[in-house]
Design goal:
Bound molecules: iron/sulfur cluster
CATH architecture of one domain: 2-Layer Sandwich
Shape: globular
Order of helices and strands: EHEHEEEHHHHHHHEEHEEEEEHHH
CATH superfamily of one domain: CO dehydrogenase flavoprotein, C-terminal domain
Length: 327
């Protein structure tokens, strides 16, 4: 591990000052400390923000559900409002990492976590994300777990977060505070960036900006929702494929559909073509299968992950059936 200094701050303005001067924010530290040990990350200054007042889960005047950036994953998963209104979020969190990590890791940190690509974590391998311009060892290497959607010649790594898939499906927004005190919010779909030719730029974050909350918009029609994760083993493993599904069915017809996939894209992958197939139709096993056929549209598999194309379709179909019912 490279030498670094760490400052604990109690006030948001102190955090922003430190961020403006190049300090790197840390809270749960469950990803960053790992990467520092492996010398993949080498921050010189850490700013411990875990005492900042960014912890609550509240409902805004508009009825949106606001989850503070420093809410622990376990707290968010257990929160009665999250559990009853958006079970897809609770389930995605509970299927992530381990109980110990969920007790430490925060929502803000979760969406900021870096890829699990093994070449990224191996400092002897070429990796454009770790060292821009050095190449991508995964393209010609072992790429079974890598992306089939949204990749570029520069990078084919998947985004590892489960709850980010649920946030993408529900069209959440990320709230940010800049060093000059300016607030802004970004659609979740725009916050995480596809690699293009600059895979080291992973989020739409300006220098020194702090994530303050993730907000899930109120849905006037109640949604039935859930998350399915397919992985090589049943615990403490990242998704090969996953599906976040939320549906509103009334009068025997699908009125609203929100679907996103994980484990397959360089970012959580919203599936608008699947959603369009569902709206206005009567729920049936045939409908779920027909809609899921669109899930892998545009996929460009690599040598070792061709199986993900079919697996993704089946994951989406199965989760539509679980949420929408079998008939
Ligand atoms: Fe690095 Fe991305 Fe290639 Fe993995 S896929 S080696 S993270 S550039």
């Amino acid at each position: 591990m490279h030498p670094f200094s760490i400052t604990k701050v109690a006030h948001t303005r102190d955090a922003l000052n430190a961020g403006r001067n190049g300090g790197r924010y840390i809270a749960g530290g469950t990803t960053l400390v790992d990467l520092m040990r492996e010398t993949v990350e080498r921050p010189r200054t850490l700013v411990d923000i875990s005492d900042l007042p960014l912890r609550g889960i509240t409902v805004t005047g508009r009825g949106d559900l606001r989850i503070g950036a420093l809410v622990r994953m376990a707290e968010a998963a257990d929160h009665p409002r999250v559990r009853t209104t958006f079970p897809v979020v609770s389930q995605a969190l509970e299927l992530s990492a381990s109980a110990q990590l969920r007790n430490m890791a925060t929502i803000g940190g979760n969406i900021m976590q870096r890829t699990r690509c093994t070449y990224f974590r191996d400092v002897t391998a070429a990796c454009n994300k770790r060292e821009p311009g050095s190449g991508c060892a995964a393209r010609e290497g072992i790429n079974r777990t890598h992306a089939i959607l949204g990749a570029s010649d520069s990078c084919v790594a998947t985004h590892p977060s489960d709850v980010a898939v649920a946030f993408a499906a529900l069209e959440a927004r990320v709230h940010l505070l800049g060093p000059d005190g300016a607030e802004r919010s970004v659609d979740f779909a725009d916050f995480l960036l596809r690699p293009g030719s600059t895979p080291h730029h992973e989020q739409d974050l300006r220098s020194g900006e702090l994530i303050t909350a993730v907000e899930i918009p109120a849905h006037p029609r109640p949604l039935k929702s859930g998350y399915l994760k397919v992985r090589d083993r049943q615990s403490y493993e990242f998704a090969l494929t996953s599906a976040a599904v939320a549906l509103h069915v009334r009068g025997g017809v699908v009125r609203e559909a929100k679907v996103a996939a994980g484990g397959v894209g360089t970012v959580p992958w919203k599936l608008p073509a699947v959603e369009r197939q569902l709206i206005g139709e009567r729920p049936s096993d045939a409908l779920w299968a027909k809609a899921a056929e669109q899930a892998a549209d545009g996929a460009r598999p690599l040598e070792h992950n061709r199986f993900k194309v079919e697996l993704l379709k089946r994951t989406v179909e199965r989760q539509l059936r679980i949420v929408g019912g079998s008939r």
